[in-house]
């Protein structure tokens, strides 16, 4: 790994290089042999006795040694051809960048502009533009073929090798197929149950899909604030976040240089980028929500559509009549977007312009295929406020808006809480599915207690794993700095790894047909004392190796058949191996362990592996 | 805080001093005015407009500035009088310490012996000794009065101030009363549904209770190994673990100096100490499980009973006939105790001596009131092995042994997994309650995925929170070093805080009547921008403050009405306050918000606060 090692100080340095014992490989979908779908192959040690493990790879070209990275030019714009070849779009001059787009920053504090300029595309009237429109028309796009291949991960071969079906989860009505076909992707998008956030102007994108019948995804938030941090830091945070597994990144920048920062991020991002346009709109009226207008907001939407933002958080569910429902809350309104709109509504004593102009917003976003992330501006900010009327009134409105956006041809997902104790999580998921016609749910946490500032990646990781199991499609990470300050690189990594754990635990519990392959490979490595394989198969090989080396630093120990927990003469795994050897000998003498095993199977030894028994246990709950 | 600041290098230094903005206070139970039950009071800032918050305090005299700590003499032995005054015990010479008790350590490597020697007590035939025996006889002991007061925490007053009942949880059959009375404690112990681990020789103990109708507890493991670490480090790890909230501590030392290390820990520990006696027994036969004998094990039990160990993990459920059930597992037997006994059983082709001598074990432990922690020697070590026949066969045997131990008058809890995906957690809890007559469950994690070595405090914290909600009484922590190495001080703290989060999240979800008081106090502080109060009400004030100061170090910022997430002109909480002010004005003008609120209530605005709705949502699950 090369951390910020670029000797050329005139361009921002970012982290490049492969993860330990990993190489980038590419799959070629049968349906579109010109596509190259990236995977990461984890290379096992010699003598592992099993094949290398391919895993999903969000990291983009940054981990590909064959690619020379130059953030000044940005990533290759491969997707431009896909968009153009299906037609229905036009290139045009685009909106002129105004000083207010960067908060009227003076020359002294202006960030360096991104070098290249790409003219934007927009959809032509009377043509299909969005993935939803293509899907409904029965057309399979390259984006759909790409994500189908990506979700399968090359695990098809591995599953075929596996003796039995691995999936015995409880999916709560989700139906993850054994293999994902492009047609399945199309049908899920047509149904509104999945989205591929993919602005036609984000040509650097490696498409991915969000929906409860696919792998659970995670989002990482980055963004400078008025108080601290720089453009360069934000680009590197994006690269760093996707290195560890962020599926999408939200740029939540405020203050000056917003437009420029976003341009650098988009031109260098292989993952979908989300924003909250109201943040920039607010900057354009000097931070005073009362001064916001529909025209100003609309202009900001177009600005960001042209840049290539893939999804917008839009808090159109914060209606005038809901605001007073928050007055007696312990923590009022904690969403920034929600509070801005609440103040605007009250100041003018008018319905939110996001709600009254929702049709027009749809028309704009459709032209670029920007997906909706309908924001939960009234989400609870404390355990005390969870599942209250304000929260659920807004959710009902989001359901109403989902149908309008779908009618307009737009892709939609729905944002969710927040702070929610464990016993109130499931009702959130159930109600979201019901109100919003199974549009993908995208939740922040939820945090399951308020009492651990500094550890909210953990309070929320618990809730995230649970709601992911219950059907949430994407989990927005929370870092250890939540409520306290801006995350740095270490915090971003901790947040991403924590949420990869939550998402994977959810996939296992849902019964994703291939999720357990990685657990099993790692557990075999652990049991065989293949230390390096154990590190490399984990989510964070560097940390695992460092922790091991703190106690047993010598190379020899990494092949030794003991670990520091027990020491050389006292190791449970070693003893188990002895037990196995002994049992084998014993059984040769005593006419075969196989027979004994068979006998125990007759006695019902597998009863607790039975998926139905497990489901029954959860149903009682 | 004074970290290891003792200038006198001849005695081990440990961490003393109060937590930030905290003072030790004592409650005096009506039923026994001679008892002083410690609490920690978190002192809020002037102008907080609400009372200080008393919280449960596990830290012992180490956080009491009025006590001078000298680990050479140990803690005051207050409980000796309680035991003696109820009679039925005799003081005796006790077993002579043998060289093998410390692994035949030579003079060069011998740890310094603990200075004071206390003659042990043991129960006399025909007398009641254990808390279970007293409880069944309708006798309320001082230990019972003590824990009743401790569980109530002085929150009685606060609850009386609260306008409404706070508890709307889903308890899955647990029934936590609004207030804990000594009689309730007695009845739960008599029923076998709770235990007070309290060896009559652990006179330094501040008693605590483990059971699903009480606060969810956590355990921290410490212990040197053959490879690394010293006596001094282990004593300080114990003090450090209880400082952050460990309710019990297990000393899992192996190698040399085991007896001496344990003596130092016990004489300085205000919390129950648990051990796994087979570890020491194995050291006495040079690490060869085949050489173990009942006599050697029995002698070790008596040695540890006399020292004052409060609970023993005993793997008596690893029966000869279950061992081959593990042969096809991905990770075989991962419990150290389990693998030792498996090897012994196979080597001799005999039933486990722990099983065949179980009656005698009960008779020994009863004499000192050492509680059973019936070990899960066949727990799953990987997702692949969860809930298999080996695991559940053992659990059924633990149920059988529970009844035997109860008949003998012994207190019992049951250990549980291990590695279990989320959808298989509840069946573990359900089966344990059913097989073991509701004896308290004490689980390690469970870890909900295998793929994150270095982060197993998180993979397991998710499972721990869930099983705590479902009814688990005590959660054994997992540190970030799990599977990789021995935890250091930082790892111990991280493990403890993570498990305090899990236990508290469980209490909230179960509907513990007072759990939410702390969440609410912290959330109010957060919303009021009382930064110092927010830090101090959290589980780890130091970390929260440091994180805040990394971004906004100035003192002035800690009273400022904004945070670094948004900056001064763009803060959702500030805007919400504006919204509230505005709403109040508006409503004065428009004839009252109260009327509007009333109208919304009629419309069903409180429906989602209804506990029954929430429970229904979980039942569908």
TrEMBL record, chains A, B:
Binding site for substrate: 221, 250, 279, 315, 335-337, 376-379, 415, 442
Biological processes per GO annotation: thiamine biosynthetic process; thiamine diphosphate biosynthetic process
Catalysed reactions, semicolon-separated: 5-amino-1-(5-phospho-beta-D-ribosyl)imidazole + S-adenosyl-L-methionine = 4-amino-2-methyl-5-(phosphooxymethyl)pyrimidine + CO + 5'-deoxyadenosine + formate + L-methionine + 3 H(+)
UniProt cross-references to InterPro entries, sorted A to Z: ThiC (IPR037509), ThiC-associated_dom (IPR025747), ThiC/Bza_core_dom (IPR038521), ThiC/BzaA/B (IPR002817)
The EC number(s) this enzyme carries: 4.1.99.17
Gene3D superfamilies (alphabetical): 6.10.250.620, Radical SAM ThiC family, central domain
Pathway stated in the Swiss-Prot or TrEMBL entry: Cofactor biosynthesis; thiamine diphosphate biosynthesis
Keyword Ligase: no
GO CC annotation, single: cytosol
Residues holding [4Fe-4S] cluster: 563, 566, 571
Swiss-Prot/TrEMBL keywords: 4Fe-4S, Iron, Iron-sulfur, Lyase, Metal-binding, S-adenosyl-L-methionine, Thiamine biosynthesis, Zinc
Sequence positions that bind Zn(2+): 419, 483
Cofactor field: [4Fe-4S] cluster
UniProt remark on cofactor binding: Binds 1 [4Fe-4S] cluster per subunit. The cluster is coordinated with 3 cysteines and an exchangeable S-adenosyl-L-methionine.
NCBIfam families linked to this entry: PRK09284.1, PRK13352.1, thiC
Function: Catalyzes the synthesis of the hydroxymethylpyrimidine phosphate (HMP-P) moiety of thiamine from aminoimidazole ribotide (AIR) in a radical S-adenosyl-L-methionine (SAM)-dependent reaction.
Family of this protein: Belongs to the ThiC family.
Official protein name in the record: Phosphomethylpyrimidine synthase
Gene (UniProt): thiC
């Amino acid at each position: 790994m090369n951390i910020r090692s670029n000797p050329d100080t005139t361009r921002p340095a970012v982290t490049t290089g492969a993860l330990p014992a990993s190489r980038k490989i590419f799959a070629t979908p049968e349906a579109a042999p010109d596509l190259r779908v990236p995977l990461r192959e984890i290379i096992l040690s010699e003598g592992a006795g099993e094949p290398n493990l391919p895993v999903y790879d969000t990291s983009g070209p940054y981990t590909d040694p064959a690619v020379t990275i130059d953030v000044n030019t940005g990533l290759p714009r491969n997707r431009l051809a896909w968009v153009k070849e299906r037609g229905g779009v036009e290139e045009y001059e685009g909106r002129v960048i105004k000083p207010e787009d960067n908060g009227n920053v003076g020359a002294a504090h202006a960030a360096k502009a991104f070098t290249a300029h790409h003219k934007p595309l927009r959809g032509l009237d009377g043509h299909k533009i969005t993935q939803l429109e293509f899907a409904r028309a029965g057309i399979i796009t390259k984006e759909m073929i790409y994500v189908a291949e990506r979700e399968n991960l090359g695990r098809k071969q591995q599953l075929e090798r596996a003796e039995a079906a691995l999936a015995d989860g409880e999916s709560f009505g989700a139906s993850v197929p054994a293999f994902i076909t492009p047609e399945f992707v199309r049908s899920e998008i047509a149904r509104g149950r999945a989205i591929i956030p993919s602005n036609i102007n984000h040509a650097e994108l490696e498409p991915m899909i969000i929906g409860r019948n696919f792998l659970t995804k995670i989002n990482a938030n980055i963004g400078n604030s008025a108080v601290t941090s720089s453009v360069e830091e934000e680009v590197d945070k994006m690269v760093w976040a996707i290195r560890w597994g962020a599926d999408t990144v939200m740029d939540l920048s405020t203050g000056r240089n917003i437009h420029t920062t976003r341009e650098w991020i988009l031109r260098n991002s292989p993952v979908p980028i989300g924003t909250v346009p109201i943040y920039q709109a607010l900057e354009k009226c000097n931070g005073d929500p009362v001064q916001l207008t529909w025209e100003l907001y609309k202009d900001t939407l177009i600005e960001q559509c042209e840049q290539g933002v893939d999804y917008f958080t839009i808090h159109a569910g914060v209606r005038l009549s809901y605001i007073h429902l928050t007055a007696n809350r312990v923590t009022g309104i904690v969403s920034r977007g929600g509070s801005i709109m609440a103040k605007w509504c009250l100041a003018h004593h008018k319905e939110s312009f996001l709600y009254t102009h929702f049709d027009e917003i749809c028309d704009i976003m459709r032209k670029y295929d920007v997906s909706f992330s309908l924001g939960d501006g009234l989400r609870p900010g404390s355990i005390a406020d969870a599942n209250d009327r304000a929260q659920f009134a807004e959710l009902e409105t989001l359901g109403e808006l989902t149908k309008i956006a779908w009618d307009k041809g737009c892709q939609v997902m729905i944002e969710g809480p927040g702070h929610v104790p464990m016993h109130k999580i499931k009702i959130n998921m159930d109600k979201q599915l019901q109100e919003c016609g199974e549009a993908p749910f995208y939740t922040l946490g939820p945090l399951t207690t308020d009492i651990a500032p500094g550890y909210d990646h953990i309070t929320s990781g618990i809730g995230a794993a649970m709601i992911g199991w219950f059907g949430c499609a994407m989990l927005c990470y929370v870092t250890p700095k939540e409520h306290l300050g801006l995350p740095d690189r270490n915090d971003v990594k901790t947040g991403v790894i924590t949420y990869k754990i939550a998402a994977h635990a959810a996939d296992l519990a849902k019964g994703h047909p291939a999720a357990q392959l990685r657990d099993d490979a790692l557990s075999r490595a652990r049991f065989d004392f293949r230390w390096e394989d154990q590190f490399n198969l984990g989510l964070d090989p560097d940390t695992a190796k460092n922790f091991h080396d703190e106690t047993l630093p010598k190379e020899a120990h990494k092949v030794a058949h003991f670990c520091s927990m027990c020491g050389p003469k006292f190791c449970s795994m070693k003893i188990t191996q002895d037990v196995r050897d002994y049992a084998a000998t014993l059984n040769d003498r005593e006419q075969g362990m196989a027979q004994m095993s068979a006998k125990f199977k007759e006695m019902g030894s597998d009863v607790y592996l039975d998926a139905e028994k497990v489901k029954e246990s959860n149903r009682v709950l």
